[in-house]
């Protein structure tokens, strides 16, 4: 093997992954034409799942508010929400006053609210409960967190060479544990308009790598299978750069509010509308660990959540894509029934889960957990719906992928979304 070729292989094998989006490094295989993706979009393979994690433990009792239950008024004085302020769902339950945009989606039959979601023997540690939700495993030990639930989906259904990544994390920092896989790397994007193909830097060896990769991309070296593979990967990386820069160059939808979450969902919508074949997007909203002075802080968070989800839904609806996209919204746990002395709430257990999109049954799914003292789990509302049944619905019904190898046997999918065909 010649020195030039050996140097090229060494540099290009490392440089092939140097596609940077807002700082994090991702593989250089984001490539598929928008025309091809649009052609697929009408079938089950065109369905997209957006997972939104509320970090910190959202107070479900002041989100989906059981205003007519005596236990609510008995245990909450400073942070209690009056029934007349709520967006009514039924005679007992209403949405927080600042969630008007989400209430509008409910009126349009685009929102399902699963009540009392959790898991057996709840753990009130942020880190442990997040591990359980993100891995869909309640056992402990290093092997339990080797992969996340989405990561196992990706390992079971890996992308073919040249395909768009099957999952993307939208936000700063590393991809979450939920997307950790053994064989598939999930890219992390902060903003589409920060995309640039970084195959060369100031160092001479990096400039040499770009020159070599450009050369192999131009010349058909069909006599060498390895160089042929690298040629296809290089072309894919350049095509990825071109396509994402085209997306970044388009005028963004100005109807999104100026919230961090709204801007992240805007990036998701831009990629979906550009025809990327990614089927699972993951993003997060932080700030829900409301131990003190919860009233105003929580209201602002829920206002951001509701307005951002509504803007995202309406953006996709305007593009005729809203029936292809479902959004799953969850937090690692709820908060305790009783408020604390600091005007906040401490770590709890069961909480509601939202699903936005073409839901089968809009409104409340399941009964609200009892707030009677004898029915509480160490001061918390008891769960009655295992979160893995929600995940099973996202996989079996929405994406058309078997859930049992991912979440385990015995978790019947909830009837949340239209089942996939075949």
TrEMBL record:
InterPro entries: DUF1501, TAT_signal
Name of a matching Pfam family: DUF1501
Domain of life the protein comes from: Bacteria
Protein name: DUF1501 domain-containing protein
Source organism of this protein record: Tautonia sociabilis
Lineage, opening ranks: Bacteria, Pseudomonadati, Planctomycetota, Planctomycetia, Isosphaerales
């Amino acid at each position: 093997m010649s020195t030039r070729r050996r140097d090229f292989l060494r540099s290009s094998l490392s440089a092939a992954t140097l596609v940077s989006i807002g700082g994090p490094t991702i593989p250089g295989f984001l490539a598929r034409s928008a025309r091809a993706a649009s052609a697929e979009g009408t079938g089950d393979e065109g369905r997209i799942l957006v997972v939104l994690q509320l970090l910190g433990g959202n107070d479900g009792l002041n989100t989906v508010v059981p205003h007519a239950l005596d236990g609510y008024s008995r245990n909450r004085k400073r942070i209690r929400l009056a029934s007349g302020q709520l967006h009514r769902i039924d005679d007992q339950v209403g949405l927080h006053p600042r969630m008007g945009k989400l209430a509008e989606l409910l009126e349009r039959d685009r929102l399902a609210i699963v009540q009392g979601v959790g898991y057996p023997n709840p753990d009130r540690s942020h880190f442990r409960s997040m591990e359980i939700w993100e891995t869909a495993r309640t056992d402990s030990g290093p092997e339990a967190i080797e992969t996340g639930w989405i990561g196992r989906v990706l390992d079971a259904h890996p992308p073919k060479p040249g395909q768009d990544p099957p999952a993307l994390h939208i936000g700063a920092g590393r991809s979450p544990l939920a997307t950790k896989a053994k064989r598939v790397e999930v890219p992390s994007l902060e903003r589409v308009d920060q995309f640039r193909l970084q195959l060369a830097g100031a160092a001479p060896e990096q400039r040499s790598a770009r020159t070599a990769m450009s050369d192999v991309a131009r010349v058909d070296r069909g006599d060498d299978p390895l160089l042929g593979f690298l040629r296809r990967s290089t072309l894919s990386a350049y095509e990825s750069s071109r396509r994402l820069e085209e997306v970044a160059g388009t005028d963004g939808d100005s109807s999104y509010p100026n919230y961090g979450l709204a801007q992240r969902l805007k990036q998701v919508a831009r990629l979906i509308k550009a025809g990327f074949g990614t089927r699972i997007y993951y993003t997060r909203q932080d700030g829900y660990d409301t131990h003190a002075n919860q009233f105003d802080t929580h209201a602002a968070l829920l206002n951001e959540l509701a307005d951002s989800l509504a803007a995202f839904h309406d953006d996709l609806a305007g593009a005729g894509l809203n029936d292809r996209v479902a959004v799953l919204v969850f937090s690692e746990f709820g908060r305790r029934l009783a408020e604390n002395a600091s005007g906040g709430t401490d770590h709890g257990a069961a909480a509601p889960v939202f699903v936005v999109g073409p839901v089968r049954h809009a409104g409340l799914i399941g009964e609200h957990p009892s707030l009677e003292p004898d029915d509480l789990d160490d001061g918390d509302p008891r769960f009655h719906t295992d979160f893995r049944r929600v995940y099973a619905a996202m996989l079996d019904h929405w994406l058309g992928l078997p859930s049992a190898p991912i979440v385990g046997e015995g978790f019947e999918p909830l009837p949340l979304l239209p089942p996939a065909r075949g």
